[in-house]
Design goal:
Blueprint lengths: L1 E3 L10 E8 L3 H13 L2 E8 L5 H4 L6 E5 H10 L8 E4 L2 H10 L3 E3 L4 H25 L5 E7 L5 E6 L1 H7 L18 H12 L4 E8 L5 E10 L5 E8 L1 H54 L6 H26 L7 E3 L1 H13 L6 E7 L6 E3 L1 H17 L6 E12 L15 E10 L6 H4 L17 H11 L3 E7 L3 E9 L24 E5 L3 H11 L5 E5 L2 H10 L4 E7 L7 H11 L5 E5 L3 H7 L7 E4 L4 H24 L4
Parallel strand pairs: 2-3, 2-4, 4-5, 5-6, 13-15, 19-20, 19-21, 21-22, 22-23
Antiparallel strand pairs: 1-3, 7-8, 7-11, 9-10, 10-11, 12-14, 15-16, 16-18, 17-18
Amino acid sequence: MYRERPAIRVDAMTQHLSILYVGGDPAVSVRLDDIGREAGVVADVTTASPPVPRVLLQDAMWDLIVLDAEVFAEVAAGAPVVGMRPTLVLGDEAIAAQALEWGALDVMDLQNMDRVAARLRGLWRARSDRDLMNEALSYLEDSVLIARARGADGFDVMFRNPACSRRTGTSVGDRLMCLTPGPRTDMRKIEEIRHEMTAGHPVRTELLDYRADGEISWIEFSAAPLSQADYWIAVSKDVSRRHESEDRAQKLRDLVMKSQKHENVAILAAGIAHDFNNILTGIVGNAELARMTLPAEHTARTDLDTIIAASQRAAALTRELLDFAGPGKGVLEAVYLNSMVTTMLVILRSQMHKSIIVRKSLRPDVPPIEADPAEVQQIMFNLCLNASEAMVETGGVLSITTDWIDIDEDVRQGFSYGRPQIGRHAVFEVADTGCGMEPNVLLRAFEPFFTTKPDARGIGLGVVLSVVKAYRGAIDIHSVPGEGTTVRVVLPAAAARERRQTPGRHGVQPSSHQAHTVLFVDDEEMLRTLCQRALEPLGYRVLVAADGIEALRIFEENRDRVDLVILDLSMPRMGGEDAFKAIQSVRDDVPVLLCCGYDEASAQRKVSGSTFSGYLPKPFGVDTLINAVRVAISDHSTAIDSMNGNGLR
């Protein structure tokens, strides 16, 4: 639509003007160039043919717009002068009155060189002043915009500083005074701003606004009318940091209130439990004394047995209240989350509906924590049972994850409950695909005695929070109605000098030379669990996979850490032999034990051409498994040492 003349090489001190010529006479550009040189100004002329877009005529890059008399009427009709750059119309007195009334800067003939040159020099001085103002305003981080009102049609932008340009992008259109509303913007405030400005009143408010790149931020918006009619100045200041600080302060106040409420209820619970235990002691003691005085065939003995059984149930409730009231009095020791998850699931499985699928993702190098094992198991059990109950009617997936995290000052501020200490923490996470919680329920999830279940007491999650806080840990919880809930618990890792290893099976304790990683691959979950329960207490890190494809993925992720692979021969998707070949292609020096129900000779015939490090027959016992693992790793280490001793590296 328009073409630009070649750039003229000039000295850096030369005065430049950017001129847009709208017309069809090529000689005009040459004439403007000649007049500019005579006046000491370089005229960089760009030529355009009508019709010209309004946005081009409003572009701040032009110091002057020159219109041919022939196209003046057409341009003037399609683009009112409001918002245009200074405009010069080439013509005679016949159109002078109309052009000046329209808003033209001047009407003249290019043959009047002195008059045109004076105009160019004046424009250059005006632009120099404008450039100086722009330079000063460019240092502002706040957005500054000057516009002229067009009544109900919006505003024409006369000036905006670089900060405003960066916020709104290159095209401002009819955006309201450097505001770019989005999905989260309060549109009622936008309408209030429009209403007040239409009435000529100054405005000052805060609202969520969007940048041209989609980033959202809180801004303080101010707008006021200038002394010249219909002109406004608007300033937008980013106050996101202040809002973030206020939000953090409010969350901290809420946490303090929750903590105080929890502590008060805990004190009350401890007192009730203490008195209740005294009452129960009298009931049970007297009931047993009465039963002892009655003959075996007396009918009252049955009633007394019922009283004693009911008292024992009440005693169990009392123990829960005491656990809720504070940390237990058990002996602290090094607790390994992976081993405890495996043990806990054996108990939990019997209380879960068969429609619930359990998935585990246990990181092998999770550090131990210093805690009472019974209390840690209670945390796991309560969270898992709560998650499973959310899926009783519909079924679903219960995901259990262990991990570790290094917590710094920024991370510790982001937890829903508690502020963990700086340093490494073990992570236990439970996620379900159940009914989820509404926001008002989520806020009260760990509140003592609060429950949405008709037959529940509302103590379980309260106990979890009490125990976690007692160990200086923290809890994060996220829930979406209809999608499920995720609860993440972090507990501080035991300091190296404080870690006391728990004796393993047969009195063997984990030690540094036993800290090997074993990848056990079998499609039978019971066997995978058996392997973990047998090896992890001895210090082994156990990774498990249900088939060859999953095994290959896990092996690739841990290729430098796996010391032994145990492969089932018959598995879905990818069998043991194919998995063996795939693993060997990734790392050919890892020892692999073949695990199957065949005798060794038959197994070797089925996998002819594959060289396994050993053979583990099914069914196998725990001792057989442990010995096979020890021998395989020891033989492999001996072979490597032998090769290194012979200079083979």
